[in-house]
From TrEMBL:
Pfam families: B12-binding, B12-binding_2
Keyword check for Metal-binding: yes
Species, as recorded: Pseudonocardia kongjuensis
InterPro entries reported in the protein's UniProt record: Cbl-bd_cap, Cobalamin-bd, Cobalamin-bd_sf, Met_Synthase/Corrinoid, Meth_synthase_dom
Protein known as: Cobalamin B12-binding domain-containing protein
Source organism, top-level taxon: Bacteria
Keyword Cell inner membrane: no
Residue intervals of the B12-binding domain: 95-221
Keywords from the named record: Cobalt, Metal-binding
């Protein structure tokens, strides 16, 4: 076995160690040294910084690090990207102008930041707008700057309805939209469902697609039901608007079914309400897309996260039951909850409790 590890693997290990220790200065040194050692900037962005950031998220889900550590690591990685950008010669540009933004309500900005820097390295002129960009302000920016395309990023599936409205608004302004991020599915299924002009699984694929150019949208439209006729039943709208009331009803009902809730302190009750809200939000987005897998997949992910935290697995079924009682007059919601309950009944490990 060689005593000289792959330099990219070595840099990744060093950066991961630095960000998990909260050592920003060492993290910056690792990246600068990697550039000096001949690793190209795009590789450092995607195969070092990007890989480390993905591992940080996995560590949080597995309960190996806290939320605070995850946030600190992300902040350091963001500043490291800034250092890399300042340490790399500027591209002459001229390959087109791209606006890169996150969907309104989407705080996970690092994937979009990585894309923006890759595009700059490849000669695009880039307007990077960052996290949580309100659609109205994004459209104003498009009218002012006239980009060739918008690259829209979202990691959380509950932002898909907002993403849909933003895609439609950009297209109505005559600007094509390429989307990416975990929210759109590993195969881009939700990008197609929401009529985006293009989808890319990663930054390199996005850059290659944009290099080929995107045509001006042929069918600007403004109504979600143009793409999703099932929304005419209003179930998504009613569940989404009534989410606070649904959460309150479920939490109140749980107190009568789960004896230990009588001993919950205020913080535990707040966490319970927050987690029930997540369940309601994912139910709503499954109603929006018409895809039950969005809801059942979220419950499976929740089960794995709670299992890593040694949380008892006996509360989620009552949550689904209580939601079913509240939504018994909603046929699609009732069907979704029945599918989810059946999946949980077939899971020998249960799904954990949302608290």
């Amino acid at each position: 076995m060689s005593g000289h590890p792959d330099p990219v693997v070595r840099c990744t290990a060093l950066l991961r160690d630095a960000v998990l220790r909260g050592d920003e200065y060492t993290a910056v040194d690792v990246v600068v040294d990697a550039l000096h050692d001949g690793i190209d900037a795009e590789t450092v962005l995607l195969e070092v910084i990007g890989v480390v950031q993905a591992s940080v998220g996995e560590d949080w889900a597995a309960n190996r690090i806290s939320v605070a550590q995850e946030h600190a690591a992300t902040a350091i990685n963001d500043r490291v990207i800034g250092t890399l950008a300042l340490s790399t010669p500027r591209s002459p540009g001229g390959r087109g102008r791209i606006t890169v933004a996150c969907v309104d309500g989407e705080w996970h900005a690092l994937p979009a930041r990585l894309l923006a820097e890759v595009l700059r390295l490849r000669g695009f002129d880039v307007d990077y707008l960052g996290a949580q960009v309100p659609s109205a302000h994004l459209i104003t920016h498009l009218h002012r700057t006239g980009p060739d395309a918008v690259a829209l990023s979202s990691s959380i599936a509950t932002r898909l309805p907002t993403a849909h409205a933003t895609i439609s608004a950009c297209q109505a302004a005559g600007v094509p939209v390429i989307v990416g991020g975990a929210a759109f599915g590993p195969d881009g299924r939700y990008a197609r469902l929401l009529a985006a002009d293009a989808w890319a699984p990663d930054a390199r694929a996005a850059a290659e697609t944009l290099a080929g150019g995107l045509p001006v949208p042929a069918r600007p439209h403004a109504q979600p039901t143009d793409d999703l006729p099932h929304l005419s039943d209003q179930e998504f709208t009613l569940v989404d608007r009534n989410a606070p009331g649904l959460v309150a009803a479920v939490v109140e009902g749980l107190s009568g079914r789960i004896p230990e809730m009588a001993h919950y302190d205020d913080a535990q009750l707040l966490r319970t309400a927050e987690d029930v809200r997540h369940i309601v939000d994912f139910l709503a987005v499954a109603l929006y897309t018409g895809d039950p897998e969005l809801f059942t997949g979220f419950l499976d992910w929740t089960a794995s996260v709670l299992s890593a935290r040694s949380v008892p697995p006996h509360v989620l079924p009552p949550v689904l039951d209580l939601l079913g009682e509240e939504l018994r007059d909603f046929p699609r919601a009732s069907d979704l909850l029945a599918v989810a309950a059946a999946a949980r009944d077939g899971d020998p490990h249960g799904a954990g409790r949302p608290a």
